[in-house]
Specification:
about 90 residues; mainly beta; four-stranded antiparallel sheet
Protein backbone atom coordinates (compact mmCIF):
# COMPACT_ATOMS: atom_id res chain seq x y z
CA UNK A 1 0.00 0.00 0.00
CA UNK A 2 1.33 3.43 -0.94
CA UNK A 3 1.73 6.21 1.56
CA UNK A 4 -0.63 9.14 1.19
CA UNK A 5 1.10 12.01 -0.59
CA UNK A 6 -0.56 15.08 0.92
CA UNK A 7 1.33 17.58 -1.25
CA UNK A 8 0.30 15.77 -4.42
CA UNK A 9 -3.30 15.65 -3.20
CA UNK A 10 -3.34 19.37 -2.41
CA UNK A 11 -1.82 20.35 -5.76
CA UNK A 12 -3.84 17.99 -7.98
CA UNK A 13 -7.10 17.40 -6.16
CA UNK A 14 -10.34 18.57 -7.73
CA UNK A 15 -12.58 20.87 -5.67
CA UNK A 16 -15.48 19.31 -3.80
CA UNK A 17 -18.96 20.47 -4.69
CA UNK A 18 -21.86 20.34 -2.27
CA UNK A 19 -25.08 20.11 -4.25
CA UNK A 20 -27.53 20.64 -1.44
CA UNK A 21 -26.03 20.87 2.01
CA UNK A 22 -29.31 20.40 3.82
CA UNK A 23 -27.83 20.40 7.28
CA UNK A 24 -24.48 20.82 8.97
CA UNK A 25 -23.11 20.63 12.49
CA UNK A 26 -19.81 21.10 14.32
CA UNK A 27 -18.20 18.46 16.55
CA UNK A 28 -16.16 19.00 19.72
CA UNK A 29 -12.96 19.51 17.64
CA UNK A 30 -14.64 22.18 15.48
CA UNK A 31 -14.79 19.92 12.41
CA UNK A 32 -17.72 20.81 10.16
CA UNK A 33 -20.03 17.90 9.25
CA UNK A 34 -22.31 18.22 6.20
CA UNK A 35 -25.32 16.10 5.20
CA UNK A 36 -25.69 16.48 1.43
CA UNK A 37 -29.23 15.33 0.68
CA UNK A 38 -29.00 15.81 -3.08
CA UNK A 39 -26.24 13.23 -3.59
CA UNK A 40 -26.98 11.12 -0.48
CA UNK A 41 -23.62 11.51 1.30
CA UNK A 42 -22.08 12.70 4.58
CA UNK A 43 -18.85 14.74 4.59
CA UNK A 44 -16.72 16.47 7.14
CA UNK A 45 -14.36 19.40 6.74
CA UNK A 46 -11.38 19.11 9.04
CA UNK A 47 -10.25 21.93 11.30
CA UNK A 48 -7.42 19.91 12.83
CA UNK A 49 -3.86 21.14 12.26
CA UNK A 50 -2.68 18.13 10.21
CA UNK A 51 -5.59 18.19 7.76
CA UNK A 52 -6.81 21.81 7.87
CA UNK A 53 -9.81 22.35 5.53
CA UNK A 54 -9.53 18.88 3.97
CA UNK A 55 -12.91 17.47 2.96
CA UNK A 56 -13.52 13.81 3.79
CA UNK A 57 -16.40 11.68 2.54
CA UNK A 58 -17.57 9.81 5.62
CA UNK A 59 -20.36 7.65 4.29
CA UNK A 60 -22.89 7.23 1.54
CA UNK A 61 -22.69 6.45 -2.16
CA UNK A 62 -22.81 9.55 -4.34
CA UNK A 63 -25.94 9.59 -6.47
CA UNK A 64 -27.34 6.35 -5.03
CA UNK A 65 -30.24 6.58 -2.61
CA UNK A 66 -30.86 3.77 -0.15
CA UNK A 67 -30.75 2.65 3.45
CA UNK A 68 -27.84 0.23 3.72
CA UNK A 69 -25.35 0.01 6.57
CA UNK A 70 -21.75 -0.61 5.68
CA UNK A 71 -18.38 0.93 5.13
CA UNK A 72 -17.67 4.09 3.14
CA UNK A 73 -17.86 2.19 -0.15
CA UNK A 74 -21.10 0.27 0.38
CA UNK A 75 -23.33 2.32 2.69
CA UNK A 76 -26.22 4.34 1.31
CA UNK A 77 -28.50 7.11 2.57
CA UNK A 78 -31.80 8.41 1.26
CA UNK A 79 -31.57 12.20 1.29
CA UNK A 80 -29.90 12.64 4.71
CA UNK A 81 -31.37 15.71 6.33
CA UNK A 82 -29.68 15.99 9.71
CA UNK A 83 -26.75 14.68 11.70
CA UNK A 84 -25.31 14.95 15.15
CA UNK A 85 -21.58 14.32 15.48
CA UNK A 86 -20.23 13.58 18.92
Amino acid sequence: MEDWDSLNTILHDEPSIFYWNYNYNVDYRNNLWVADSKIHTIYYISKEAETWNAIFKVSGTEGKAGARNGNIKSSTFNEPSSLYPY
